[in-house]
From TrEMBL:
CDD domains: STAS_anti-anti-sigma_factors. PANTHER family: ANTI-SIGMA FACTOR ANTAGONIST TM_1081-RELATED (PTHR33495:SF2), ANTI-SIGMA FACTOR ANTAGONIST TM_1081-RELATED-RELATED (PTHR33495). InterPro entries: Anti-sigma_ant, STAS_dom, STAS_dom_sf. Residues 17-118 form the STAS domain. This is Anti-sigma factor antagonist. Signal peptide: none annotated.
Length: 134
């Protein structure tokens, strides 16, 4: 399928200064992952260290999408940050669970739950010390 047949939409909002809510819509695969990666890199560049990745409108995700999620997770851990997947579509949730990505990157039901988890995970973290593991 050509990229024009399978566009990806990535919208970033800032519920807080250091939190980026990244809403993705469309198939997240090798043909479309570059836009997702570019948006995350841009937010890291602008000082965001917590990411809520809303995948509720992603009906399909391949290893390209999973690799990007894991890379941003690794980068944010160095910054004492948090990455979470918000309300993934059923097929995407299944992929995250089967591959074990959901063990590393928590899944939240909605943005409010995601923000509460950011607060819990960062509450005791001193600068330069990673937040406790879940």
């Amino acid at each position: 399928m050509a990229l024009a047949d399978n566009p990806l939409s990535v919208e970033v909002t800032l519920p807080r200064d250091d939190v980026a809510l990244v809403k993705v819509a469309g198939h997240l695969d090798v043909d479309t992952a570059t836009e997702f990666q570019a948006q995350l890199a841009n937010q890291l560049h602008h000082g965001r260290r917590h990411f809520l990745l809303d995948l509720s409108e992603v009906p399909f995700m391949d290893s390209s999408g999973m690799n990007i999620i894991l890379r941003v997770y690794q980068e944010t851990r160095r910054l004492d940050g948090v990455v979470q997947v918000i309300d993934p579509a059923p097929a995407v949730r299944r992929v995250l669970e089967l591959t074990g990505v959901s063990i590393t990157v928590p899944i939240a039901a909605d943005v409010e739950e995601g923000l509460a988890l950011v607060d819990r995970q960062t509450a005791g973290a001193a600068p330069g010390v990673p937040a406790p593991e879940r």
